[in-house]
Specification:
alpha/beta; 131 residues
Length: 131
């Protein structure tokens, strides 16, 4: 009699646990690998690899004392963020030009203000070094 009894189907969870553990380790490793590359890339005002880019739709200048100029007018980081939001941020090309003496902190303030506005196309102006 026991030979003809139907057996219940079982779901084996051990292979599923193995796969989930593998996925967890994979995504953790990929996330750790992506963290060091998430910083801002910047070049000093002179560069031997400077290339020509199309004229910017918005120009932000940084003076040595940290003063920000947008299209020739004084501006605060909040003003830059509002200006970028007012224009089409998805298609807005912003170029940041700085003085030789400008601190990296001033550059980061300008980049942060532009990125808070939603722009992703950010270029840094540089003079090409004669070879």
């Amino acid at each position: 009699m026991r030979y003809f009894e139907t057996r219940k189907a079982r779901i084996e969870i051990i292979p599923m646990i193995d796969i989930m553990l593998f996925l967890l380790v994979f995504f953790a490793m990929m996330t750790l690998r992506m963290i060091p590359t998430s910083g801002q890339l910047s070049k000093l005002p002179t560069s031997s690899t400077a290339t020509a880019i199309p004229p910017p739709k918005l120009m932000v200048e940084i003076r040595a004392n940290g003063q920000l100029l947008v299209e020739g007018h004084d501006a605060e980081p909040a003003d830059i963020t509002a200006l970028v939001k007012a224009r089409d941020p998805a298609n807005l090309a912003v170029t940041i030009a700085g003085s030789d003496d400008a601190s990296m902190q001033y550059l980061m303030k300008a980049v942060d203000a532009v990125r808070l506005g939603g722009a992703t196309q950010i270029g840094l102006a540089a003079k090409q070094v004669p070879r």
